[in-house]
Specification:
- By secondary structure, this protein is an alpha+beta fold.
- The protein contains five helices and 17 strands.
- It is 17% helix and 39% strand.
- The strands form three sheets. A six-stranded antiparallel β-sheet has the order 7-6-17-14-9-10, with helices on one face. A six-stranded antiparallel β-sheet has the order 13-12-11-8-15-16, with no helix packed on it.
- The chain is elongated.
- The two termini are 33 Å apart.
Length: 267
């Protein structure tokens, strides 16, 4: 690799010291940092998992691998921490790495055909009510067939990569990130019999916003990777399926997912 593009979370590196250190280190070793996405061979993301998630969706069209450098307290996606940056850069310079392909989700509102209205997520698409602490009603269909009518705080539709995010906090299953599955996990369902469901990556999930229990119109948000929000109302539908785009994640260590999981859980 010769050409690198750096994305920095300014709240994690406010004085750009780490960013400048990385640029200088790469240039001293004959590499280049550029803003020309046509030349870029690797994207270095300084921040945490949230920063990497935003970068992955913003640059899904570029088709280059990402390396997350964790400047926060905990990350599953950002493999490198502050103390391991120089070693990580040496491995990149020597082309000593593997590339993992992670599936993404595509969310389409009301069957819109315009590609600009399509939104992608590496971790999850979450349906949430606009009013905090208020239950919402919605129907979930899988491949056109009604799965269940839910009354809950919301619904998480997650990739395997996202299984250790909001899905995990909501009591959903942990999935090996290279798997190709779709997880749906209700948020605080008003039921004793609502559990996570694991679906094939080939399945299509449709969430239909209905009226509330009093027959009133509802206003909710579809939230992509904890960032972009799309407003939905009663009668709207969002179809969520596997995206044709994937995210390439650089892997430098030989540590497997279970070892990482064990360390994070202890932390």
């Amino acid at each position: 690799m010769n050409y690198f593009y750096i994305i920095t979370n300014q709240t994690k590196d406010p004085d750009n010291k780490m960013t400048e250190y990385i640029i200088n280190y790469l240039e001293k070793n004959g590499k280049f940092c550029t803003d020309d996405l046509k030349l870029v061979e690797c994207v270095l993301v300084l921040g945490g998992d949230g920063t990497l998630l935003r970068a992955a969706t913003d640059l899904a069209h570029v088709n280059v691998p990402f390396l997350g450098i964790n400047m926060g307290s905990m990350g599953f996606l950002a493999e490198v921490d502050r103390t391991g940056i120089e070693k990580a850069l040496d491995m990149l310079i020597a082309d000593e790495f593997e590339i993992e392909s992670r599936m993404m989700l595509l969310g389409v509102i009301n069957d819109q055909k315009n590609p600009s209205s399509h939104n992608r997520a590496l971790n999850d698409v979450v349906i949430l009510g606009k009013v905090s602490m208020k239950l919402i009603n919605f129907n979930v269909y899988v491949n056109g067939l009604l799965l269940k009518r839910y009354t809950a705080d919301g619904m998480i539709v997650s990739t395997p990569t996202g299984s250790t995010g909001y899905n995990l906090s909501a009591g959903g299953p942990i999935v090996e990130p290279n798997a190709e599955l779709i997880l749906i996990t209700p948020l605080n369902p008003h039921s004793l019999h609502s559990r996570s469901v694991v679906l094939s990556a080939a399945d299509e999930i449709t969430i239909e916003i209905t009226k509330d229990k009093y027959g009133q119109e509802q206003q909710v948000d579809a939230v992509f990777d904890g960032g972009r929000r799309i407003s939905l109302a009663t009668g709207d539908r969002i179809k969520i399926s596997k995206s044709e785009k994937t995210t390439a994640i650089l892997k430098l260590s030989t540590t497997n997912f279970l070892e990482i999981l064990q360390r994070k859980m202890i932390d």
